[in-house]
From TrEMBL, chains A, B, C, D, E, F:
Positions of transmembrane segments: none
Record-given protein name: Carboxymuconolactone decarboxylase family protein
GO molecular-function terms, A-Z: peroxiredoxin activity
Coiled coil: none
Superkingdom of the source species: Bacteria
Domain annotation Carboxymuconolactone decarboxylase-like: ranges: 31-116
Length: 122, 122, 122, 122, 122, 122
């Protein structure tokens, strides 16, 4: 399997439905970017040892919360976090843990993204 | 125990030595800020259920890497991560995982902070 | 009075209506976060001496403008700024003052948030 | 010609229509801010030698992508980029180039802003 | 007086010594940038009505704390804050006020910048 | 040639010396990260059509200036910009162009990084 195939395989376990949406959205404007995400993010990074998918999604949603302005990606990775086995409580707790480090506003944005993602998931 | 006492107890398990340095550095200019960190960060947040200290430090170093410009706090929390049981490999892997989400420059800054912290710890 | 009660008392003077909305929005997903904001932000920080509520809201809206992506919180604190006595002109001038420090894009975002908040307030 | 007049002349070449919208949006709340953008951004900066309008717009959209949360300004400057002669392919490639430096989430936000701007432009 | 002269006059009241250092540092590489700061920041923005120099410096140091990575400029404006009449206590309190909005790490960076600036000022 | 070999070939044209330093610095702590930068940044992104190396470095230094706190990477890419044919004047002008979009503080940080890089290069 090449990296793109590995990426597709990993993505199927993490969030196949959202991946389809992004692939669709990118195909007429930047299809190469979709390949890069498959090869680098899902085929290389997520395929590495040492941390499991639950830890990796916890890191991803923390990073997305912290940089701000990435609520779309955050909703996708909140769903992905549920898919790989994080509970709703663990996701919310991850966000609350960030409050002393990034302040309440970014945490509130993440919590409200979670609220939407949880509603859609239920 | 009040929250400050709980904070001191948790901090002793996480990173007592660094806490002393920060307390010393703040005592003539903003001693109240030290109390707030004890009460809110270590007495309230770190004392919550649902995530353990290893997960909490993984979230903290991810958030510090992502916001950038916090290398001093990152070095303290890399040491704290080691103290609560994360391995050097897990810390480095946490940083590498962030590359697709924040780009290489911030990841490199964190890796070099880890290099210094690991050398000091050894 | 404990810190939560002090926070509620201060919040009533600053922005009771918005606080109700946030409390409602958080109660099913992260009610503890609401308590933390009451205790730490409004019960501890806003209750301190040295700066008055008008100065504190001026600092808050500057920080929200600067970090970007916090337009929801900005609208709440623009209303809060009006509630504690800042004029519309002072709020706009605070945002304009930031232009040489953060550039025009974030300032424009804040001005348009103010435009909405002022319209709602009138 | 004073700087405001130079700014208006440059802006007409870069993005007259969007400028009208911003002027309209600001005139009741912060008309001075509109003048500052005309004088400083378009009358001083864009009027300088050494880089042409195509290079300047490439720099502008890179900076807007990187800081995040400025999708409104990004859409305006994607249109401006087309107006001064950058192709859709060059704009998309500028955004893709940023992936190793800022990560995929901000790049995706910019690509989707481009998609909207291109559709409106066609 | 043109805007550059107004800027020089205002700067003399705010922070003449630091201005000399920046002018010296820029003169061989980007002297025009020095003029722009004089004309736009000190000749236009600081010269406006509605807010006084103390309020303007309070906004400036809040914005610099919040964006992070601007400790050099922060030290200059902490000195400027003292020059226009803010007390050391008010400067520290401004930084502490930001904790719930940006988190402790950026606040600590600002407090330590203040510690250096206060020591140099005494 | 595989992507790593393409990356090495491109890197040799862009900044061989700095690449050696980074390779050395990473080899004991995160050698895989070095490979990822070679494969993704230099073997994939810099190898794409549509934009030349001069345009790509202009985008890179703009992105590094804008995100802040990346002065080490900025110095490397200022040297790389010179290597691929950008003049000192064009690099400085790129930074000055950013002033209306990110404010003066980040621009000053980049100018001072350029000053160091130019001195080292001469």
């Amino acid at each position: 399997m090449n990296k793109k195939e590995i990426g597709l395989k990993n993505l199927a376990k993490i969030d196949g439905a959202a991946a389809e949406d992004v692939f669709e959205a990118l195909k007429n404007i930047a299809p190469d970017l979709n390949d890069m995400m498959l090869e680098f993010a899902f085929g290389t990074i997520y395929d590495r040892k040492c941390l499991d998918f639950k830890q990796r999604e916890m890191i991803t949603i923390t990073s997305l919360l912290t940089q701000g302005g990435c609520e779309n990606q955050l909703r996708v990775h909140i769903q992905a976090s549920l898919n790989v086995g994080l509970t709703q409580e663990e996701i919310v707790e991850t966000f609350i843990h960030c409050a002393p480090y990034v302040g309440f506003p970014r945490v509130l944005n993440a919590i409200f993204a979670a609220k939407e993602a949880f509603k859609k998931a239920d």
